[in-house]
């Protein structure tokens, strides 16, 4: 993340200066663990920022479809208590945290927070969780100042990255979890948006209340294209890539008992794509008829 990047950049600049004498100490097991943790933190931070950016684009664009929304400013925050006790010393060292306080972990590009020039590492003194009628008190190192942000309305279906070697994405009806292995494997943003939008569709339709079945998965696939289209993603290219087997998550679900065979899913996606392309331009709602069918599980 920011602090790690600064540390690594500083080391790189020093080593590149031929006039600067650099003493490189022998490594110790403790130093090796710190270096390994720094790499893990930087990789996880990059994945989290990518998922937050894609997720926010989908959630803001589709807020008219969501029963539950919130004012979103494009901030991810964290505090020391968010980390297991065994990792807190490392978190203090690498993640610009203090013993107390909540800090900005990352800022989504183009968001209200980005336009207000808020940056990772700054402390949110008060005003969090964000409320539209209240300023954030933010300390950038020169003292706390009030920051008033013009928020965007967004669906309440945030997506997070969890450390796991499994290629998996899931939702409990409130938030979406993507494994680190999946995010690393799916290099194309539109392909990752399809996965996030699929899980978001499960949230919008309340599938967690009825259990998983083929109709729910097929409906979520079709809905995902609608959600992506509303967010100005290239759904034609996404379906073409899915058909060619570019989506690693697709293949990981091929033997799943809760997911239909790939051939059925592809025909379903192609049908949904044709319906969207042949329909009117502009924002598209989800089908009320399919909502009723999906709730019944038929």
TrEMBL record:
Cleavable signal peptide: none
Cofactor(s) needed for function: Zn(2+)
Protein origin, superkingdom: Bacteria
Gene3D superfamilies, alphabetized: 2.30.42.10, Metalloproteases ('zincins'), catalytic domain
Record flagged with keyword Zinc: yes
Keywords linked to the UniProt accession: Hydrolase, Metal-binding, Metalloprotease, Protease, Zinc
Free-text comment on the cofactor: Binds 1 zinc ion per subunit.
Keyword Cytoplasm: no
MF annotations from Gene Ontology: metal ion binding; metalloendopeptidase activity
Ranges where the Peptidase M48 domain occurs: 161-211, 216-271
SUPFAM superfamilies: PDZ domain-like
GO BP annotations listed: proteolysis
Recorded family membership: Belongs to the peptidase M48 family.
Annotated protein name in UniProt: Peptidase M48 domain-containing protein
Organism: Algimonas arctica
């Amino acid at each position: 993340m920011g602090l790690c990047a600064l540390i690594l950049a500083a080391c790189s600049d020093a080593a590149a200066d031929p006039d600067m004498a650099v003493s490189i100490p022998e490594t110790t097991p403790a130093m090796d663990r710190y270096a390994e943790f720094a790499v893990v933190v930087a990789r996880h931070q990059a994945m989290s920022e990518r998922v937050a950016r894609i997720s926010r684009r989908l959630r803001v664009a589709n807020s008219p479809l969501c029963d539950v929304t919130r004012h979103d400013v494009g901030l991810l925050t964290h505090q020391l208590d968010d980390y297991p006790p065994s990792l807190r010393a490392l978190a203090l060292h690498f993640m610009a945290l203090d013993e107390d306080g909540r800090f900005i972990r990352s800022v989504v590009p183009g968001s209200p927070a980005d336009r207000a020039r808020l940056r990772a590492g700054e402390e949110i003194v008060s005003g969090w969780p964000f409320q539209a009628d209240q300023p954030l008190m933010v300390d950038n190192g020169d003292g706390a100042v009030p920051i008033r942000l013009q928020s965007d309305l967004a669906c309440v279906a945030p997506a997070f990255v969890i450390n796991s070697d499994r290629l998996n994405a899931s939702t409990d009806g409130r938030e979406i979890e993507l494994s680190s292995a999946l995010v690393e494997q799916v290099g194309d943003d539109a392909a990752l948006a399809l996965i996030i939008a699929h899980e978001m569709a499960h949230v919008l339709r309340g599938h967690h209340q009825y259990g998983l079945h083929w109709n729910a998965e097929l409906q979520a696939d079709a809905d995902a294209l609608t959600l992506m289209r509303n967010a100005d993603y290239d759904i034609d290219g996404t379906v073409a890539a899915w058909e060619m087997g570019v989506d690693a998550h697709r293949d990981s679900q091929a033997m799943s008992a809760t997911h239909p065979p790939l051939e059925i899913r592809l025909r379903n996606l192609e049908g949904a794509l044709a319906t969207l392309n042949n329909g009117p331009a502009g924002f598209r709602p989800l089908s009320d008829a399919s909502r009723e069918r999906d709730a019944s599980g038929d």
